[in-house]
Amino acid sequence: MTATDLPGALSRLRAAAPLVHNITNQVVANFTANALLAIGASPAMVQAEEEVEAFVVQAAALVVNIGTLLAPQRRAMQLAARRAGEAGIPWVLDPVAAGATAFRRDTAHSLLALRPRVLRGNASEILSLLGEEGGGRGVDSGAAPERARDAARILARQHGLVVAVTGATDYVTDGERMVALENGHPMLTRVTGTGCTATALVGAFLGAGLPPLDAAVAGLAALGVAAEQAAEGTAGPGSFQVALLDRLHGLDGATLAARARLR
Amino acid sequence: MTATDLPGALSRLRAAAPLVHNITNQVVANFTANALLAIGASPAMVQAEEEVEAFVVQAAALVVNIGTLLAPQRRAMQLAARRAGEAGIPWVLDPVAAGATAFRRDTAHSLLALRPRVLRGNASEILSLLGEEGGGRGVDSGAAPERARDAARILARQHGLVVAVTGATDYVTDGERMVALENGHPMLTRVTGTGCTATALVGAFLGAGLPPLDAAVAGLAALGVAAEQAAEGTAGPGSFQVALLDRLHGLDGATLAARARLR
Amino acid sequence: MTATDLPGALSRLRAAAPLVHNITNQVVANFTANALLAIGASPAMVQAEEEVEAFVVQAAALVVNIGTLLAPQRRAMQLAARRAGEAGIPWVLDPVAAGATAFRRDTAHSLLALRPRVLRGNASEILSLLGEEGGGRGVDSGAAPERARDAARILARQHGLVVAVTGATDYVTDGERMVALENGHPMLTRVTGTGCTATALVGAFLGAGLPPLDAAVAGLAALGVAAEQAAEGTAGPGSFQVALLDRLHGLDGATLAARARLR
User: Fold this and answer.
1) Which of B22, B28, B36, B51 to mutate to test the interface with C (most CBs of C within 10 A)?
2) Which of A55, B70, B164, B206 could bond to B215 as cystine, CB 3.0-4.6 Å?
3) Of C34, C42, C50, the CB nearest to A191
4) B144 vs B128, B151, B165, C232, C233, CA distance in Å?
5) pTM of the predicted protein model
6) ipTM
7) Which of residues 29-88 of B touch C (CB under 8 A)?
8) Residue B190 carries which DSSP code?
9) What SUPFAM superfamilies is this protein classified in (chains A, B, C) (predicted)?
10) Which residues of B112-122 are buried (b: 16+ CB within 10 A; e: fewer)?
């Protein structure tokens, strides 16, 4: 995956308009759905234990996010993830604040064991999944992504998946290859759920049939470039959030390729 | 109900400022509440089994939306709907993605049996309630509203209620009369929960005392006209969503009557 | 606390960037998190019974809001509030629609008994907690804040806490001192969850180490002044809500001191 592959990835997503099944948190449900619609996917939020297995097999990809985890939702996540695995439906895990409590840590590990194709977190979350000290400030990341880069590589090898660590620089690795992305804008840290949005966009590209590493890079690049465009001329986080949806909607492949800073 | 009746309906809603009790989904709760406030109603989101019966009798109307259905919420919906029926409080049902799983289909049918005054769905949802194939792509509608128009008429007669099928053209029927609305804008399909918003606005007009067919037509016309205004000069779905609330707030009866395309 | 103390309070908040643990309602979760980020705090929404005690001790303050109360969430609130009290972590209670049902009233009283540092409600909610008739229109306030002012003083003395009653004029009292605030804008009543936002901002100032009366005054003043700025040049409640986040983010101490109308 290089910058020149991004226009094709975006076209493929928009042609497929993949149904993305989200089991996500209450804070970001609306924004996640709108971001998925804006990029060209078709979101659905379905979370009851009674129906997630029947629903996920209709989807092109599954997004699991433990942000406002409750015990029944945890069971639904495990059911959906297991069924997705059986049916060959790719899924991505967002282990929000995984290191903050035993409940989150245990849940994140139980989900990791069900083999997501991609794991997307901030440095603290990724470090905590490896058992390292990373911070305990909820959803904030106290640790530098650079330190988490090595943890990401180890996790990727241990679990046979792609790990994306996001921060000022994003790192995406399958345990062998390592892609660094330099896009984005500090305003992303002043709006809630932009990390969750990154995860959902990765899910959309997975749903469009991209391999996990490519899907992760494309999702993060799309968000980063749209964020840079959104930050131009906006007055604060409220208008930035609105402009981010506009920019995801208006994103074109040529701009994405020209502005993406991958290495 | 013709276009010339719309200013009176809107005035009546704003004078009544009806308390609208919503048992709705997590994705749209915020936007629904803001849309109800913008049009001039007073929203409340109350969903615990322990209190919905005590609350609904204080309300002017009830809105039931199964978008992110959970089993305890289903029980709350059934309790509230039954109590609303007993107390003569009108209510509207939004059977989100009713055809996607047995859990949703069964829930939708159990709620239909409790006799809402209005049922509002997209073509897929309405068709699936009649047992026809309509699509299974979650909240998206894969079926043409025209095909669902006949299904709506049958459902309306079977259950003795008003059915509103929304899409590029909306159809509202009580089983005898059929009103078609041509308002709206494609951008409505790029923002999550605009169908849910339509349902909530129908609830607001029911709460203002309008008969079900009139309430359904007025709610859909208000949303459609506000959406057309909102789409003028907005750059994408983020700013469209913001402008939609501004336009619902600023909507005046004369504009509504002039722009509504009913037949 | 006078207007000249406000710049110092705001600086202290931004330097501390306190982790604010919210157990709040589904309608406002996103906006609350964004408002806390905008003012300079670090929000986390954590609500499972299994983890709230482990999480709250890592936070600088706790915000408890019963807006879309469910029984498991009530237990989580009680666990978190008790643990916060034991650990000396300040917390604020928002008794949304406390008078509307027995379930809410009982919950609000059980939480009051756990000794929040601040109670923030509208006139109806505060009156209902004293057992007086105040209205039953859900989250709306039917009663004048002036009448609730005296109820606030009584409640503050009974429970040994600070009570903030918000409305066209806000009143903050510890049972002895009484501060009136004249900031704000009518548009605040056309956006859902602005009262909840006030409560969350009070939580942020508590988390920055301010005494309860000062934290309550600072939180309400910040929201009121930002709302006045946001209302300038916005076309309706949609754009007002966006501008409110921009203004909370851009708020500076000098403007806050100059525009705050305390007495």
Assistant:
1) B51
2) B206
3) C34
4) 13, 11, 10, 44, 41
5) 0.96
6) 0.95
7) 29-30, 33-34, 37-38, 42-51, 54-55, 58-59, 72
8) G
9) Ribokinase-like
10) bebebbbbbbb
